[in-house]
UniProtKB/TrEMBL annotation:
It is a multi-pass membrane protein. This is Olfactory receptor. It comes from Dipodomys ordii. The keyword 4Fe-4S does not apply. Its main location: membrane. It is found in: Cell membrane; Membrane. Keywords: Cell membrane, G-protein coupled receptor, Membrane, Olfaction, Receptor, Sensory transduction, Transducer, Transmembrane, Transmembrane helix. Pfam families: 7tm_4. GO terms for cellular component: plasma membrane. Belongs to the G-protein coupled receptor 1 family.
Length: 307
């Protein structure tokens, strides 16, 4: 994979250099990661085996949980290992692979969130045409396009990075490999490359966020014509989505839509969308969703009965 570079490895500074704080970082992120994996796996299994959760909304929620699981796994395990190491070395190829996985599954999460907003728009604003528009075949096609778009996005980022020469230094002031920290280490002018990154990642985040916000504004305006019970149910669903969208897109837009500079706050901001959002998604979509909670109870009782 390595091209145009004499650097074979990078050194990550991590979240902190203090040994005592590193132990704290390890235990905090271990709890976050275990909860993330268990929560998203529970949602995946519940949707797979519950006939009551066969609607398009839960079809997309299934893929959101998959994206969360892989997205978190591309970052947090490496952070856990590094928090116990005195020298945090990552090879050039591992660094490029981590960036590809980060952007592949991060963009997949973005596309799935957009699809979930489209699903809610059709369900609330076009209820009579909902079964026709959001057919199973249509949902499958949309997910396939989401995967293709994510792959194209991740591949584009890597192709741009592989063209950059790295000849030292190799110290990355971050806990993971990402675009802006690596641009600082490239021994060439990166102005044009950064513009391409912003037009790719930055535009993806910003445009998707605007589309999502516009769709929810339209949905909320349309609720005036619904019954009180219908408004309550729709507001509960949409508020869950809006919480996730703000927590995920806010930090992403801050990181990927600015000139090639790194700030001290970048590492903490990155924590929000690499570890925080995948952890919160299962809580938001289960604690605020009666159908998911009921399906989980039925699945648990079925497992207990078999024992």
């Amino acid at each position: 994979m390595q091209q145009n570079s004499s650097v074979t490895e990078f050194i990550l500074l991590g979240l902190t250099q203090d040994p005592e704080r590193q132990s704290t970082v390890f235990f905090i992120f271990l709890l976050f990661y275990v909860a993330t994996i268990l929560g998203n796996t529970l949602i995946i299994v519940t949707i797979m085996f519950s006939s009551a959760l066969g609607s398009p909304m839960y079809f997309f929620l299934f893929y959101l949980s998959c994206a969360d699981t892989f997205f978190s796994t591309s970052i947090v395990p490496r952070l856990l290992v590094d928090s116990l190491s005195t020298k945090k070395i990552i090879s050039y190829n591992e660094c490029m692979t981590q960036i590809f996985a980060l952007h592949l599954f991060g963009s997949l999460e973005i596309f799935v969130l957009v699809l979930m907003a489209v699903d809610r728009y059709v369900a609330i604003c076009k209820p009579l045409r909902y079964p026709t528009i959001m057919r199973r075949q249509v949902c499958l096609i949309l997910i396939v396009f989401a995967w293709i778009g994510s792959f194209v996005h991740g591949t584009t980022q890597i192709i741009l990075l592989l063209r950059l020469p790295f000849c030292g230094p190799n110290l990355i002031d971050h806990y993971c490999c990402d675009l802006q920290p690596l641009l600082k280490l490239a021994c060439t002018d990166t102005y044009v490359v950064n513009l391409l990154f912003v037009s790719n990642s930055g535009a993806l985040c910003s445009c998707s966020f605007l589309i999502l916000m516009f769709s929810y504004i339209v949905i909320l305006r349309s609720l005036r014509n619904h019954s009180a019970e219908g408004r309550k149910k729709a507001l509960s669903t949409c508020s869950s989505h809006i919480i996730v969208v703000v927590l995920f897109f806010g930090p992403c837009i801050f990181i990927y839509t600015r000139p090639p500079t790194t700030l001290p706050i970048d590492k903490m901001v990155t924590v929000f969308y690499t570890a925080g959002t995948p952890f919160l998604n299962p809580l938001v979509y289960t604690l605020r969703n009666a159908e998911v909670k009921n399906a989980m109870r039925k699945l648990w009782h079925a497992v207990r009965m078999r024992e």
